[in-house]
């Protein structure tokens, strides 16, 4: 799985050679992981800096307790949102997003300010990655 996670195009023969096993064994194991829905798909990793000017943000969102789930559901539909988590023991959401420019971040924040049930939010713009997220290359 680790090999496929960083290079989904790696052949079964290449993986077999690295694991010192047969190609058939690798193929069987991958098929079993897909069958058990441990592997849910294969995708290309894209370096977004190479194709567009993307800004990564992390936003902590404080919510009213009874509105947390509905807010999370509505935010999850936004294509700019990479990940959205609930913070344990708090009525908080932690969001990671990618935006094309500062104006689109401001528009998103303006929408948060108008959303019923959001008490406050804190946006942190990522200026440098010391360890990049391999899934978004940023």
Which characteristics define this entry?
6 helices, 4 strands, 2 domains, Alpha-Beta Plaits, 138 residues, alpha+beta
Describe this structure in words.
This protein has helices spanning 2-6, 12-19, 23-35, 48-51, 68-76, 102-114; strands spanning 55-63, 81-87, 92-99, 118-125. It has 138 residues and is α+β, with helices and mostly antiparallel strands. The chain has two domains: 2-35, no CATH class; 48-125, Lrp/AsnC effector binding domain/regulation of amino acid metabolism (RAM) domain (Alpha-Beta Plaits). A hairpin with a 4-residue loop joins strand 2 (81-87) and strand 3.
Largest beta sheet, briefly? 4 strands, antiparallel
Under the CATH scheme, which class of the largest domain?
Answer: Alpha Beta
In CATH, what is the homologous superfamily of the largest domain? Lrp/AsnC effector binding domain/regulation of amino acid metabolism (RAM) domain
* SSE pattern, N- to C-terminal: HHHHEHEEHE
As laid out across the biggest beta sheet, the strand order is 2-3-1-4
The gyration radius over C-alpha positions equals 19 Å
Proportion of β residues?
A: 15-25%
* CATH level-3 fold name of the largest domain: Alpha-Beta Plaits
What is the 3D shape? Answer: elongated
Query: Which regions contain 5 or more consecutive residues with pLDDT less than 50?
Result: none
């Amino acid at each position: 799985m680790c090999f496929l996670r960083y290079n989904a195009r790696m052949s079964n023969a290449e993986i077999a050679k690295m694991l010192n096993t047969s190609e058939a064994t690798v193929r069987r194991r991958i098929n079993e992981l897909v069958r058990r829905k441990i592997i849910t798909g294969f995708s290309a990793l894209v370096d977004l800096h190479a194709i567009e000017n993307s800004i990564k943000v992390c936003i902590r969102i404080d919510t009213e307790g009874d509105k947390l789930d509905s807010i999370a559901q509505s935010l999850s539909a936004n294509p700019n949102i990479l990940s959205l988590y609930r913070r344990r023991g708090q009525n908080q959401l932690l969001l990671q997003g990618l935006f094309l420019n500062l104006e689109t971040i401001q528009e998103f924040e303006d929408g948060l300010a108008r959303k019923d049930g959001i008490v406050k939010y804190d946006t942190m713009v990522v200026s440098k990655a010391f360890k990049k997220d391999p899934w978004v290359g940023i």
